[in-house]
Amino acid sequence: MNIALVKTITMKHFLPFLTILLLFCSCNSKSTKEFDLIITNATIVDVLGNTVNQSQLIAISNDTIRLVDNMSNLEKYKGAQVIDAANKFVMPGLWDNHVHFRGGDTLIEENKKLLPLFLAFGITNVRDAGGDITPSVLQWKELIAKKEIDGPTIFTSGPKLDGSKPAWPGSIIVESTKDVTSALDSLENLEVDYVKMYDGSLTKEAFYEIIKQAEKRGLKTTGHMPLSADILTATEFGLDGTEHMYYVIKSTSPLADSLTQINPTYGMFPQIVESYDPKIADSVFKQLAEKNAYITPTLYIGTVLSELTEVDHQEDSLLNYIGLGIQKTYQGRIETAQKAKSQGNNSRSQLGELTKDMIVPLYNSGVNLLAGSDSGAFNSFVYPGESLLLELQSLVAAGLSPQQALITSIVNGPKFFGLGKFYGSIAENKVANIVILEKNPLEDIKNLINIRATIIKGKVYDKKVLNTMLKSIKK
């Protein structure tokens, strides 16, 4: 046979084969998507659905969940880092919606050392409720966002707004309605995430004016209320939230108006508690729900402070992670508790019991509850990280289901800031703030303590890394 003819026939058949081979390789390379991190064999906790989805994979690049798929499609994906979450439960990271970084310049470093504690307990986001070291907090916020230091994503109010005699150092003084504009200008210049008011000496008129002006600027408002003010009136003006339960409780008593006119101080609360009216409460709760109000009950700290004279905290394991300077700030609460006990004053305990009784009615009315620990300097033995888990346990003890308690943290936390689109579930385009657990928290809220790893915007802190961080801050 002619050799030239053989070559022609061979090339005639080889070229189509080569074309098919190249097309196959090209399609195969395009179908294999690459990511920074893939979590395999995950059982995803769907908090809103109150269920779990097994045999899932989660693909993450940069700080975002890029896709969630079934494990049967694993061959389509490649990860620079892979975590096998077999027999583990994966859910969005927790939000602690009321913490404090404070104590002045001498305690800046001690506050900074608290940041890893949040990660160790699966808390990926915190809402700082005001203090006196705002420049440092804003710096930490930026460095955490850049992944240059370890800590949770921080949302901060910056300095509190208070009256002529502020209760806390570092507050911006608002003596009259004329001061409101400059105060809010200052907060906007700091680029804070929301406005926090305090009732040290803030007048009712200034309080209402802050809310009105902040509403026009699109700023979220929450905090303590002057006891001369009314929570329903405040929400009509645009108040977004309230911290603790004092102001809600006050509004549920038929004596509220008369007691306010006589002596608008916390001394009225024994009578307020005794005259609590469930029918009035039901009406108030419905009105708050209609205004999309947020309430941070802070149950756990109430229990701790009411038991300060009975419980010895010196053997607390987490006390070893708290700086001596911050520990010294605990003394004020202790002395107040001792004084109250000597005077036979148990109003804090009575208030705490009523607060617990109100949790389920509030939730069922549609009011947005926020899980917050109130941890930080001056709040004795309420440790960052652990206290949020104990707050969630307290909410369950008050009657919420584990699912409902989790909603107060991971769903309502971002919802307060209008960020529900980016947080609250394990789904495509959500921020990759994640916690991997050994057991299902929907079955038992105490299962939150069993953490395999915490992930902040795609950066992985496994158990070994978390333990190493904790050792570095232990005294």
Task: Write a structural description.
There is one protein chain. This protein has a domain at 93-423: Metal-dependent hydrolases (TIM Barrel, Alpha-Beta Barrel), CATH 3.20.20. It is 42% helix and 19% strand. The protein has helices at residues 3-31, 108-112, 115-120, 134-145, 180-190, 204-217, 231-237, 246-251, 256-262, 269-274, 278-290, 299-306, 324-329, 331-342, 347-365, 386-397, 402-416, 463-473; strands at residues 33-46, 51-61, 64-70, 77-84, 89-92, 94-99, 123-128, 153-156, 161-162, 172-173, 195-197, 221-223, 241-243, 294-296, 368-369, 434-437, 451-456, 459-462. The strands form 5 sheets. Strands 1, 2, 3, 4, 5, 16, 17 and 18 form an 8-stranded mixed beta sheet that branches. A hairpin with a 2-residue loop joins strand 2 and strand 3.
Features:
alpha/beta; TIM Barrel; 18 strands; globular
Helix content: 40-55%
Describe the sheet with the most strands.
Answer: 8 strands, mixed
Radius of gyration: 27 Å
CATH third-tier fold name of the domain at 93-423? TIM Barrel
* Strand residues, percent: 15-25%
Class from secondary-structure proportions: alpha/beta
Mean pLDDT: 93
- Give the count of helical stretches: 18
Shape: globular
CATH architecture of the domain at 93-423: Alpha-Beta Barrel
The top-level CATH class of the domain at 93-423 is: Alpha Beta
- Assembly annotation: single chain
Measure the end-to-end span.
90 Å
CATH superfamily of the domain at 93-423: Metal-dependent hydrolases
> Which spans of ≥5 residues are poorly predicted at pLDDT below 50?
1-11, 18-29
Number of strand segments: 18
